[in-house]
Design goal:
alpha/beta
């Protein structure tokens, strides 16, 4: 049975580009073993000639959806979406390595993928001590769970994401029921994150997703109360998924600031 046609959102690239990014080399469908023992593919975005250079820092693009479901809903796995491919190329242009992957069990497979990347760092051309996460929207609860459970990660950029249900909010749980993303960090708190972990949170001021900004604002308050090293971008005019839906100068600036955060955090 053929996959459904790709949806419009699956074909949308990031609105910010760096000249030459289409020349980035992609190593497609490199094998890793999922938490359930299944062999699944990952893609690696890197500058040509990276194998002759010192190991690079890496950014893993964490997803919170089973890719079997993604194929039914948008017509392809998350790593095949134009947004993930263009983010991977942007990261590579900033002298980092971008990694996208397929999953079946979002939280467990994300942890398995991080373990694979650190174990196989030498063959992948990656510095295992300089690995960060990028995640967005309903994928963010899975990224938070990885940050809470996998030691040694260098930081994370979390864009217009559902985070944690704090102070009796239920926006994350409610959205997960509607949109069917994983919530492996449910019941956890900001204090469960490593105390010195740099985080960048990107807020879309006109985000239309129910309860998202209320939860994000509450998370920021808790993070500040715990004196955590967070940076916040408030793209006040941005809609949800502004990086692919809103080709405005402000959206391009926000994307560039995320790249700058990752590059600075990882010492790229």
């Amino acid at each position: 049975m053929s996959e459904p046609a790709r949806s419009d959102v699956a074909n949308r690239r990031v609105v910010y580009e760096i000249p030459g990014q289409d020349a980035v080399r992609t190593r497609r469908n490199v094998a890793y073993q999922s938490a359930g023992g299944e062999t699944l593919p990952l893609d690696i975005y890197e500058l040509p000639g990276s194998e002759r250079r010192a190991p690079r820092p890496a950014v893993i693009f964490v997803t919170g959806y089973n890719d079997l479901g993604m194929r039914k809903s948008v017509g392809c796995a998350a790593k095949e979406m134009a947004s993930y491919a263009s983010w991977g190329r942007l990261v590579a242009m900033c002298r980092m390595v971008g990694i996208t992957y397929e999953c079946r069990d979002p939280a467990a497979d994300a942890r398995a993928l991080v373990g694979h990347v650190t174990r196989e760092a030498s063959s992948l051309g990656i510095n295992p001590d300089r690995v960060a996460l990028w995640s967005c929207s309903g994928n963010v609860p899975t990224a938070l769970s990885v940050l809470m459970n996998v030691p040694g990660l260098a930081g994370a950029a979390l864009c217009y994401g559902y985070l944690l249900d704090l102070d009796e909010l239920t926006c994350v749980a409610d959205a997960a029921t509607t949109f069917r993303f994983a919530t492996p960090a449910a019941g956890r708190s900001v204090s469960d994150l490593p105390a010195d972990l740099p985080l960048m949170l990107v807020r879309a001021g006109r985000d239309e997703m129910p309860g998202l900004n209320a939860g994000l604002d509450r998370f920021v308050g808790h993070a500040l109360a715990h004196n955590r090293p967070i940076s916040v971008i408030n793209h006040h005019s941005g809609p949800h998924a502004f990086d692919i839906m809103d080709p405005s100068p402000a959206s391009r600036v926000a994307v560039r600031r995320v790249l700058d955060f990752l590059r600075t955090t990882l010492g790229a």
